[in-house]
Amino acid sequence: MHILIAEPRDILRTGLRTIFAEDERISQIYEAATQETLKACLSSKPINLIIINTSMMSNIKDLPRGKFVLLAPEVDIELFLKAYKHGARGFLSENAPAELLRATLGLAEGSFLIEPKMTVPILDLFSGDLRFAVKEELLTPREREIVSLLREGTDRRTIAQDLHISEATLKTHIKNITRKRTESTSLSLPREINQPEISR
């Protein structure tokens, strides 16, 4: 098996190389410390699996579907969903344990490994209403107020009364928020999601 480690920091890249070099399934390890080197490796090397830090990505669709594992400094729900949709093998922290990293080598096609310590924040985000999981900077001040109240569980009639707007105006604001959420993630999600679907 040929793997590519895409990590900009020398110390972490060396650590990852050491972890994978100990596995007898690995016959070749390539390394990329820059996006230019990453692109060159992707176009010229026979790679079975890419272990890539999210800081090295410009567009997730540049990665071969089903042949990559993301290493993230923290949970980014939008990136998590994009990775899942694009067939990632796993979503792990930058400091994932060696045994978890090596476990990605033997995953069956269609599997998606989530680091256990990341599951709680991911489930917390999924347990909310994803229609309002949107980047704050895309919202107007009024839309931010509405999202904040919706996340607190305030019903729409009360929100309209508290903000001194009609329910029709509130409905328009919510439609705009939903549109911005969809545009910012480029994902088609069901209107109501109570829990994530982890298996494909």
UniProtKB/TrEMBL annotation:
Keyword Transit peptide: no
Domain Response regulatory: start-end pairs: 2-109
HTH luxR-type domain boundaries: 132-194
Keyword field: DNA-binding
CDD domains according to UniProt: LuxR_C_like
Domain of life: Bacteria
MF terms (GO), sorted A to Z: DNA binding
Name of the featured protein: DNA-binding response regulator
